Amino acid sequence: MISSPILGNYKDNRKIIHIDMDSFYASVEIAEKPNLKSKPVAVAGSSETRGVVTTCNYEARKFGVRSAMPSITAKKLCPDIIFIPVHMDKYRNISKEIHKIFKCYTKVIEPISLDEAYLDVTYSKYCNGDPSKMAMQIRNKIHNDLRITASAGIAPNKFLSKIASEWNKPNGQFCITNSMINKFMMKLPIRKIVGVGEKTEKKLHMIGVKTCGDLQNISLLDLKANFGKFGSALYDLCRGIDIRDVISDRESKSLSVEDTYSADLKSSKECEIQLFILHQKLKQRLSEEKFLSKKIKSCFVKVKYNDFKISSHQTTCVLPEIEIYLKLLRKAICKKSRPIRLLGVGVIFDNRPQLDLNIY
């Protein structure tokens, strides 16, 4: 990221839309079962006693239920919550339909996940080039065709468009224009800056920085001295500067499958049986057309123990053979002899440009 006030206006004529589906998995399930619309609903893995909340609707969030929360905790907070199993194939299919709608407005689309994407509509001629009208049409089309809602943020860059998409959630949109940026950033909490987590926030609070306006009073030199390379990013982002492009050909860096179990896996035999099942699921995913041409760089096993601590074991390989995963699993079991509540297997792709020998 380039750090210079002079470059603050660079690419400031861009029109970026950030689309974020509202409680996507839960919304897809409720669209199929409209009687659940006004009830607290969570999509969770495995079981209501041992599963983990993947996502929940806004009715459930009123009770404090959140993603990644153990289902048993969600049940205590909201006794009437309705748990629905995860149906990933269904969500992928709906996501494909959503992207078909995006493609009606621009080809420059950067998917972040199944329910989130950036759209660069700078050169789109739809709606007379008005990005707010495009966002409204996209949201209406998603709702009319798929019976789920989306929120949108419109801004001159990715950072601001993502913040804007959260401003009027759910089922709303917000536009940050160039003329609004300076005033908008002054009161924006520093936690809204991408990359600012609990530790960085605490460190900034200790020096009296709570808003982006406060952060603008600190020199680039001091930010670099205190936060290293991230200091440059802080200097730019607190001013609303972000020159990153929307990358439409973003490559997948990895692929994994995992499962949380209703009862702890207490023996190596139990773990190995489940590993075989996960391995088959991974092979099935790797057979999808978009992964067929990819080279594998390494394989990994992810383990979450019953004390909720997570470890990952990885090794270099070119083929995701079951024997490799068994060795990694045994290594994890030997390292920490505790019951296991979650297992995952995956691969990391080699996305480096490959040399074309045919040209020689």
Identify the CATH class of the largest domain: Alpha Beta
Termini Cα gap: 37 Å
CATH superfamily of the largest domain: Reverse transcriptase/Diguanylate cyclase domain
DSSP strand (E) fraction? Answer: 15-25%
Shape: globular
- Which residues form runs of ≥5 with pLDDT under 50? 1-10, 354-360
Report the structural category: alpha+beta
Percent range of helical residues = 25-40%
- Number of helical runs? 14
Core attributes:
single chain, 360 residues, alpha+beta, Alpha-Beta Plaits, DNA polymerase, domain 1, Dna Ligase, domain 1, 3 domains, 5-stranded mixed sheet, 14 helices, 12 strands, globular, disordered N terminus, disordered C terminus
Structure, described:
The protein is an alpha+beta fold and 360 residues long. It folds into three domains: 12-176, Reverse transcriptase/Diguanylate cyclase domain (Alpha-Beta Plaits), CATH 3.30.70.270; 181-237, Orthogonal Bundle (DNA polymerase, domain 1), CATH 1.10.150.20; 254-352, Dna Ligase, domain 1. The chain is 37% helix and 21% strand. The chain is built from 14 helices and twelve strands. The protein has a five-stranded mixed beta sheet with strand order 5-6-1-7-8. The chain has a four-stranded antiparallel beta sheet with strand order 9-12-10-11, covered by helices on one side. Strands 3-2-4 form a three-stranded mixed beta sheet. β7 (150-155), α6 (158-165) and β8 form a beta-alpha-beta unit. α4 runs antiparallel to α5 (131-146) and α12 crosses α14. It is globular, with a radius of gyration of 23 Å. The relative contact order is 0.11. Mean pLDDT is 88; it is low at 1-10 and 354-360.
